[in-house]
């Protein structure tokens, strides 16, 4: 498992807020999840986000979203809505 601090270029050294690390860390527990979410973020397509990734994403605190996706506040609700179709009984964003 990679730590977000260990990915070159993702965050400036020493400037990673601890809360942001916690927000991203759960996504790193599912192989390929961060890549699938990144691809979805840039393409607007969600077909590569699998159930395991959706399950982890749906457990994230909504307070993490503005810090994780500061350039597109509409992305997290779109991903969560998509995940609610993939995982039955997963709450959609209200």
TrEMBL record:
Hydrolase found in the keyword field: no
UniProt keyword list: Signal
Organism listed in the record: Brassica campestris (Field mustard)
Protein's recorded name: Prolamin-like domain-containing protein
Lineage, uppermost ranks: Eukaryota, Viridiplantae, Streptophyta, Embryophyta, Tracheophyta
GO BP annotation list: double fertilization forming a zygote and endosperm; regulation of double fertilization forming a zygote and endosperm; regulation of protein localization to cell surface
Top-rank lineage group of the source organism: Eukaryota
Pfam families, per the entry: Prolamin_like
PANTHER family with a match to the protein in the record: EGG CELL-SECRETED PROTEIN 1.4 (PTHR31181), PROLAMIN-LIKE DOMAIN-CONTAINING PROTEIN (PTHR31181:SF69)
Cellular component GO terms held in the UniProt record: extracellular region; vesicle
């Amino acid at each position: 498992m990679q730590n977000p601090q260990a990915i070159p270029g993702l965050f400036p050294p020493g400037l990673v807020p601890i809360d942001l690390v916690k927000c991203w860390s759960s996504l790193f527990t599912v192989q390929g999840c961060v890549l699938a979410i990144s691809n979805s973020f840039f393409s607007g397509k969600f077909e590569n986000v699998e159930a395991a990734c959706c399950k982890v994403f749906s457990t994230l605190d909504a307070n993490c979203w503005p810090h994780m996706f500061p350039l597109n506040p509409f992305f997290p609700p779109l991903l969560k809505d998509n995940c609610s179709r993939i995982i039955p009984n997963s709450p959609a964003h209200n």
